[in-house]
């Protein structure tokens, strides 16, 4: 048990919320889909497994995102788990208005959603549920297909920066 006098108690304002939650390391994913003939995608570190039976995953998307409605309309998506060398890919997909697929190779999954070249793994899904959650939505996807593409380490996000596992 830690010494209570050493704890820094913070009110749940935006700055303290980001500071405290930034101490939780996450993996980094790119959620991709097809909008007609155009690939679309957005970075997301709010991703997790939900259920084994049936196989379900979830990610959270900002309501203000211009990409989220295009993914939602597709009703299917692929989660691309980034490897430790793909910080630049994450930054492109996190930039508003960027031409995200002009410099990034991909192939279609069996549902047509992009699987990014050099991704660590992918999870192909159909949209099962979307739940309101403040300034975000929680998107639950039913897993149809998945695979490991590389044995490299994952790209991590921690305290506002990117990193990798120490070997």
Describe the protein in words.
By secondary structure, the protein is mainly β. It is 14% helix and 43% strand. The chain is built from three helices and twelve strands. Strands 3-2-6-9-10-5-4 form a seven-stranded antiparallel beta sheet. It is globular and about 55 Å long.
SSE map:
Blueprint: H1 14-21, E1 26-27, E2 29-35, E3 38-44, E4 47-51, E5 56-62, H2 68-74, E6 76-81, H3 87-94, E7 106-108, E8 114-116, E9 121-133, E10 136-148, E11 156-158, E12 161-163
Antiparallel strand pairs: 1-11, 2-3, 2-6, 4-5, 5-10, 6-9, 7-8, 9-10, 11-12
For the record, the count of structural domains works out to 1
The helix content, as a percent range, equals 10-25%
Uncertain spans: none
Beta content comes to 35-45%
- Could you give the order of the helices and strands? HEEEEEHEHEEEEEE
Structural class: mainly beta
User: Largest sheet, order of strands side by side?
Assistant: 3-2-6-9-10-5-4
Q: Can you tell me the CATH class?
A: Mainly Beta
Round the mean pLDDT to the nearest integer and report it.
90
End-to-end distance: 30 Å
The number of E-state strands comes to: 12
CATH topology: Pnp Oxidase, Chain A
Question: What integer value in Å does the Rg equal?
Answer: 17 Å
* CATH architecture identity: Roll
Largest sheet: 7 strands, antiparallel
Cα shape: globular
DSSP summary: helix tally: 3
State the CATH superfamily name: Electron Transport, Fmn-binding Protein, Chain A
Features of the shown structure:
167 residues; mainly beta; Pnp Oxidase, Chain A; seven-stranded antiparallel beta sheet; three-stranded antiparallel beta sheet; 3 helices; 12 strands; 43% strand
